[in-house]
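Lab notebook: predicted structure, single chain.

Context: the supervisor wants predicted structures on file for every construct in the current expression panel, including those that have not yet been purified. This is the next one on the list. No modifications to the sequence; it matches the entry in the shared construct table.
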Amino acid sequence: MRGSNMKVVCVSVIIMFFGVLISSVSCLAVTAEDLKEMMDRHEQFTLIDVRDNAAYVRSHIAGAINVPARLCGMKQFPPIGRVIVYGDGLDETPVLEAVEALNRKTGIEAEKLDGGILRWEALNYPSTRKKGFEEEHLLFITYRQLEGMSRSNPDLVILDLREPQQAIQSKSLKEQGGKTVQGKRPTDLLNKFPGVRIIKSVMTEGTKDVAAGTISAKGLRDTPGAHSELYVIIDRGDGSAEEMARRLRAAGIKRIAILAGGEESLVNSGEHESKK
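Prediction complete. Output recorded below exactly as produced.
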């Protein structure tokens, strides 16, 4: 009986070892810079965009084919060799799942593109996006998307525009001649998204106090590594996130998203999203 238990333990250890090995292989990645060099050298590989078709039509990396992530496991592929998979650059979970599904197929070696199309376009690498004809496009994400990003995207940095104990005057009170009321303490982001880097951002230019965690758009621009991060801006639903996004873009930082609903989405933990 004891010998049988030892065999079970050994088999479990072996399974765990190969599971970790397979997982690490499925997480192999190339950077946007690497991909650009591969394309310039005319290397042979297949580029797969795993976003939905509407996003693909709006803009994709030239030469990419569109296979939504949920279909990668079901679709039949010939042994096409090396495959580079990319998504929106926000929540990496669908991309990782697509890579894993493709690597289970014979004759395919798949890896993901770090940062997705968001990183690619931030570096001004060529895509099919029309130049000069699109209106300003600010990227909004849901609370559920932010949750997924916090677990899967190591580049995530949250820019917090919510002033603690901010004085707020509601529109209805203002119209009735009411007086300003004290705002509630904002939701604890460290508790919501443990392990994610959080910066208290401000609108006043020239501010740069990284040690205190407070920084402006121009101050952020001059911070080492700033252009490789993915920033999600959270406000109190007062429109300041949109203004900060514009300032960041003007400062040359392009990997930006805004939490739709701001503080309200945090308070409700995205519950209203599932009811839509």
